[in-house]
């Protein structure tokens, strides 16, 4: 992969180009996963699929603790040394070496005690070395995130998506072959996960080695730890908060319920993945605006810059929600048909996280990471408190509602808190109108699922919901290429 293409001086059209590239990567990766899901639903039982998902959840918790929030500390300090290549290389190497040593210790412990750990977290015994293989994949994947963050923040979008797309293709091909041509069961996904993660990290390490040679600086590490250490509890409770629905489903129900739930979550997650692709463009820009204090003269500058990203994020969520029933019936086997309401409800949760991506930046910029930890702990407590009775009474649908309600509540609380330390001015009339139409889509989709409205009538109503949303975008100029170019280049709307 040619790094020189990623190092050229940015032109004025670079933000648009980067946004398109990141969305292309999300589209390709998402399409591969959507193709893989029907194959998984055909060859793997919900119990087998749920077992792999639970392994990823628990290894994610362990790896998150081992990272000690270092990725956030690295990303924040990246912008301090952005123009100093030697110090930038020293910064990322110090973070990677530190985290790699922590991960190695975790791997040794899990290898020695994996039998005991398996008995604690799985209701049935997994295949031999199943957990350690998934842990290797998760560990190596977390190390790759430091190099990918470097590429993202350096505006090397083309290089970034080459790596991530190739990684998605490798995972897809290996998983496809092993699932269909072997009797490995959940081990098929474990091997695919470990193999694709290792190839990604080795490729990044070899290709970025000359630009980012391995070195270590204790002072830089200490500066990153000042930011990251207060985030360690946040990382732990954050992962718990993200996956508590699946964890409790496995304890109260079974890994089979986890499999069905995650299948629906995978479709709903396309909303969040789309926002994440956009976030790779707008998140570094928000940092730059805050550090440059560009928003002082125009209090609505950041809002105007973010509004197009918010609009298209909600638009994608609108489509996913309205056509969720069709998605499930077309792509999944009969064992997974209960995933439809999960898609609808969790899309409501994921679209609220657009503001979570911004409030996190506000608190990190203000060096109030300890507050982030408190908020995450509060969110986890609410999530657990809701999930237990909701799962007992309503199963996987209850888990989805508990996750959505707690997530939305914490988004509102986090916004209020973040505004006290780093203020971003919003004009709410347009924002509430867009979210209002999306809420109408959610309500109708739930009714459509419960009462099986005739397909022709359902389609007409769906189009009547989509049309006014498109009109809003047209009035704001978001569907004109020249207007989009002007919006992004001027970092706002007139």
Structure description:
- The protein is built from 17 helices and no strands.
- The protein is globular.
- The longest helix is centred in the last third of the chain and has 53 residues.
- The protein has 2 domains: 216 residues, no CATH class; 248 residues, no CATH class.
- The N terminus and C terminus are likely disordered.
- The protein is an all-alpha fold and 494 residues long.
- The two termini are 40 Å apart.
Please write the string of helix (H) and strand (E) elements.
Answer: HHHHHHHHHHHHHHHHH
The global form is globular
First-last Cα distance = 40 Å
Helix/strand structural class: mainly alpha
Q: Could you tell me the number of beta strands?
A: 0
- The mean pLDDT is 84
Q: How would a textbook summarize the main sheet?
A: none
Radius of gyration: 22 Å
Instruction: Give the domain tally.
Output: 2
| Uncertain stretches of 5 or more adjacent residues | 1-12, 487-494
Strand fraction equals under 5%
Report helical residue fraction.
Answer: over 70%
Total helical segments: 17
């Amino acid at each position: 992969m040619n790094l020189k293409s990623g190092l050229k001086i940015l032109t004025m059209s670079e933000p648009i180009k980067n946004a398109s590239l990141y969305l292309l990567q999300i589209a390709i990766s998402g399409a591969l996963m959507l193709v893989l899901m029907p194959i998984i639903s055909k060859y793997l039982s919900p119990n087998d699929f749920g077992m792999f998902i639970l392994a990823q959840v628990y290894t994610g918790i362990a790896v998150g603790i081992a990272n000690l929030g270092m990725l956030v500390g690295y990303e924040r300090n990246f912008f301090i040394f952005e123009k100093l290549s030697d110090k930038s290389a020293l910064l990322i190497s110090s973070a990677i070496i530190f985290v790699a040593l922590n991960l190695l210790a975790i791997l040794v412990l899990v290898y020695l005690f994996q039998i005991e750990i398996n008995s604690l977290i799985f209701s049935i015994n997994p295949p031999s070395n199943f957990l350690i293989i998934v842990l290797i994949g998760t560990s190596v994947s977390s190390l790759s995130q430091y190099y990918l963050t470097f590429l993202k923040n350096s505006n090397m979008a083309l290089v970034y998506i080459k790596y991530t797309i190739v990684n998605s293709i490798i995972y897809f091909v290996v998983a496809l072959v092993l699932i269909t041509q072997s009797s490995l069961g959940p081990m098929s996904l474990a091997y695919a996960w470990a193999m694709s993660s290792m190839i990604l990290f080795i490729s990044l390490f070899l290709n970025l080695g000359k630009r980012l040679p391995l070195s270590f600086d204790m002072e830089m590490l200490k500066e990153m730890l000042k930011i990251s250490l207060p985030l360690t509890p946040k990382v732990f409770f954050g992962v718990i908060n993200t996956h508590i629905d699946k964890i409790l489903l496995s304890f109260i129900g079974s890994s089979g319920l986890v499999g069905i739930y995650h299948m629906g979550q995978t479709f709903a997650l396309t909303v969040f993945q789309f926002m994440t692709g956009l976030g790779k463009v707008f998140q570094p820009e928000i940092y730059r605006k805050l550090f440059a204090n560009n928003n002082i003269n125009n209090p609505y500058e950041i809002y105007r810059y973010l509004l197009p990203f918010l609009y298209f994020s909600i638009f994608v969520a609108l489509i996913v929600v309205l056509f969720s029933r069709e998605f499930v019936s077309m792509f999944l086997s009969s064992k997974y048909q209960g995933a439809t309401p999960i898609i609808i409800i969790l899309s409501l949760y994921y679209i609220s996280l657009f503001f979570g991506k911004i409030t996190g930046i506000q608190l990190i910029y203000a060096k109030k990471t300890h507050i982030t930890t408190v908020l995450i702990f509060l969110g986890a407590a609410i999530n657990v408190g809701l999930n237990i009775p909701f799962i007992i009474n309503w199963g996987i649908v209850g888990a989805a509602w508990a996750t959505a309600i707690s997530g939305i509540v914490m988004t509102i609380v986090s916004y209020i808190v973040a505004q006290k330390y780093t203020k971003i001015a919003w004009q709410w009339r347009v924002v509430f109108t867009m979210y209002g139409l999306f809420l109408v889509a959610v309500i109708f989709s739930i009714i459509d699922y419960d009462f099986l409205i005739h397909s022709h009538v359902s389609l007409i109503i769906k189009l009547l919901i989509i049309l006014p949303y498109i009109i809003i975008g047209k009035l704001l100029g978001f569907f004109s290429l020249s207007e989009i170019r002007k919006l992004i280049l001027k970092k706002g709307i007139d």
